[in-house]
UniProtKB/TrEMBL annotation:
It comes from Rosa chinensis. The keyword Membrane applies. Keywords: ATP-binding, Hydrolase, Membrane, Metal-binding, Nucleotide-binding, Translocase, Transmembrane, Transmembrane helix, Transport. Belongs to the cation transport ATPase (P-type) (TC 3.A.3) family. Type IB subfamily. This is P-type Cu(+) transporter. GO terms for cellular component: membrane. It is found in: Membrane. GO terms for molecular function: ATP binding; ATP hydrolysis activity; metal ion binding; P-type monovalent copper transporter activity.
Length: 293
């Protein structure tokens, strides 16, 4: 593309809230055959709410909520925020927040959850993968709760205390209203859509392929595998966990409302956080390369 065409496209993009960081992205996006979407915060609104909390142990709901709040208090993950909000809400109504202490040895396990010590208790809050990592048994009762909720496109966050699953929060995060339309519009442009997520495979939407329970490096590997097939790939993501994949993709697109790490790793930033702008960006590239300007 001519420097002028790139300048025009970059300018047009900017007025539409599509921030293009360089000519390279514009020269590649027109060839994209596959768009890989992250789930949480990308296809979904990214504002999860807790819809139920259950106990699998003898801890009271008050103790359970106290421990969960302490463990998640320093996590920036939207799921953590929803758990803290729910658990604090419970404590304010039916108990007290005076026993909520800060977790010690707090650690983030990207794409899996958090760990830390709360008082003298060793606490894990996260998915089954996190439990597996720490050799915490997930019994049939827990499995049943998880699979029933996953069928409803919910995510179950497990809380283990001293090596045993003490309870779980079921969380729901609605799909963005424009997501289905964007996927079908991409289809009409000859582009297939794939979801790659650290979460479970359920999402209330029709998409060509799903890869679930994938860690950050796994997401990047998915991109590389598609590229090895000769496909030009776009990755759309919002999280720290998406940044290796955003960097690996031919065209990385970050959700504007996402984390700074993702925004830095991307070639294009969708400032309005609206998925329609994935199409806008590809369209700008097609016009640039076919010298419409
Ligand atoms: P996605 O790839 O869909 O954006 P993430 O990789 O951010 O999702 O998270 C994957 C899963 O890891 C979540 O669905 C959740 O089960 C778990 N998880 C990650 N961080 C946390 C946290 N702070 N608290 C609880 N669960 C978490
Ligand atoms: Mg995400």
């Amino acid at each position: 593309a001519t420097p002028t065409a790139v300048m025009v496209a970059t300018g047009k993009g900017a007025t539409q809230g599509v921030l293009i960081k360089g000519g390279n992205a514009l020269e590649k996006a027109h060839k994209v055959k596959t768009v890989v979407f992250d789930k949480t915060g990308t296809l979904t609104v990214g504002k999860p709410t807790v819809v139920s909390a259950v106990l699998f142990s003898n801890y009271s709901m008050e103790e359970f909520c106290t421990v969960a709040t302490a463990a998640e208090a320093n996590s920036e993950h939207p799921i953590a925020k929803s758990i803290v909000e729910h658990a604090k809400g419970f404590l304010n109504k039916f108990g007290s927040t005076e026993h909520v202490v800060e977790a010690k040895d707090f650690e983030v396990h990207t794409g899996a959850g958090v760990s830390g010590r709360v008082g003298d208790k060793m606490v894990l809050v996260g998915n089954k993968r996190l439990m597996r990592e720490y050799n915490v048994q997930v019994g049939p009762e827990v499995e049943k709760f998880v699979s029933e909720n996953e069928k409803l496109a919910r995510t179950c966050v497990l809380v283990s205390i001293d090596g045993k699953v003490a309870g779980s929060f079921a969380v729901t995060d609605p799909v963005k209203p424009e997501a289905a339309c964007v996927i079908s519009y991409l289809h009409s442009m000859g582009i297939s859509s794939i979801m790659v997520t650290g979460d479970n495979q359920k999402v209330g939407i029709d998409i060509d392929k799903v890869f679930a329970e994938t860690d950050p490096m796994g997401k990047a590997d998915r991109i590389k595998k598609l590229q090895m097939k000769g496909l030009t790939v776009t990755m759309v993501g919002d999280g720290i966990n998406d940044s290796p994949a955003l960097a690996a993709a031919d065209v990385g697109m970050a959700i504007g409302a996402g984390t700074n790490v993702a925004i830095e790793a991307a070639d294009i930033v969708l400032m309005k956080s609206n998925l329609e702008d994935v199409v806008t960006a590809i369209d700008l590239s097609r016009k640039t390369m076919s010298r419409i300007w």
